[in-house]
């Protein structure tokens, strides 16, 4: 009789095991088809309690970033719910099993130090790692609640869960990579379109605006500025659409310390700061945490900021650097075009000036040539030496006309070679070729000026000759210096205020004190040196020419 009862019990147990295995098979088949980790975890804990008959159980994932276990699914454990983080990944029984990657049965945890946060209701636990993702744990309210068969069945249940989680993670990673590649392609296409648009722009400000707008739209970064180098400062030219230019640094000196923009510009390298609070750099706003700074060659610097740390990745950097390269190329193209236009205008002006000079020279040469021809004829007829003196003066005048014309025709082509020049010595040298009877030179200076000796000689000779030729016999010419420069003045009748600007223009021989080309040469020498020229009146009422902004050593 006892044998029959034992056989019947074994038959029933075998039938139950077979049914449970069949139920587990159906449950694991459903797990393999799941597309959600959370859904799979919930199916697993539900199967463990309903089919395997556990008092309760949970599944937690190991969060590597926080180094905590986070509950994903729980069944019949009232003190826990999804989202809870009860333990570190190296704490408690579950932490030990996970770290060792081994299942374990603990049938009496009431006195175990590893049994963290146990309120006494849980007496036994069965812990099974879920791959490298997390862990499953069944709880028993009695000691000795679990045996090796329970362990085997849970491992059978958890194995497809681990496989499913690994598959879902791979699929998620692949989807993320695909989405990232698609987004990156879209970004590159957008940058390419903007780069093409930059090639058609004619103003640098348009390039700056395009740059900022593109970063804002493509990378979804609203806090950004673009500064252009202007002299010794970085000057803000464009800002994001949500920003007010007045709220930010509009000028940053290139020698300013603690400036990320200055440092990045000087180095010519992109600089990414993940946490401004951990650096020496000063931010325009204390809210800014992450910053990227990208130079546009020698032209300027672009910066973007966020209110989150570690905001910029390698893709952001590459996109902005691509934009910076395109902007730099477009700016250089605009500058080259402007330089070509400047050269074309200059060449056109030079050609026009040469035509004028040729016409002017032809006109001015007629008079001394006529005098020369007449005097030559008289000299042949009479042999009087006086005619030779007139001929010599005509030749000298033609020589001066040629020199003055060439001086003006070479505008901008002659390099100014500056050196210290004794003003009194050069004035005296010029006077030797200009003085006439009954004229007097007073040199009231021992100053040394920094100038091109040959060009300064032209200036002095023309001003001295102007005083002698347009004042007549008995003129006294005075050359002196003052703190800002030097002057040449005479005691003649002076130049009317209405004519003082006109006398400095070539071709003003119709004016009472016009000299044709001579004073135009004076103005050209002054401009080439970076000086300034003032035509005024001397104390005696004569003409006074002041050359200012000259480096004078008295």
Automatic annotation (TrEMBL):
Record has Transferase as a keyword: yes
Record GO terms (molecular function): phosphorelay sensor kinase activity
Keyword Amino-acid biosynthesis: no
Keywords: Coiled coil, Kinase, Phosphoprotein, Transferase, Two-component regulatory system
InterPro entries assigned: GAF, GAF-like_dom_sf, HATPase_C_sf, HATPase_dom, His_kinase_dom, HisK_dim/P_dom, HisK_dim/P_sf, Sensor_HK_Regulatory
Enzyme class, UniProt record, top EC level: transferase
Catalysis: reaction(s): ATP + protein L-histidine = ADP + protein N-phospho-L-histidine
Domain Histidine kinase: 360-548
Taxonomy, superkingdom: Archaea
Cited Pfam families: GAF_2, HATPase_c, HisKA
Coiled coil regions, renumbered to chain: 317-364
EC number in record: 2.7.13.3
Protein name: histidine kinase
Organism: Halovenus aranensis
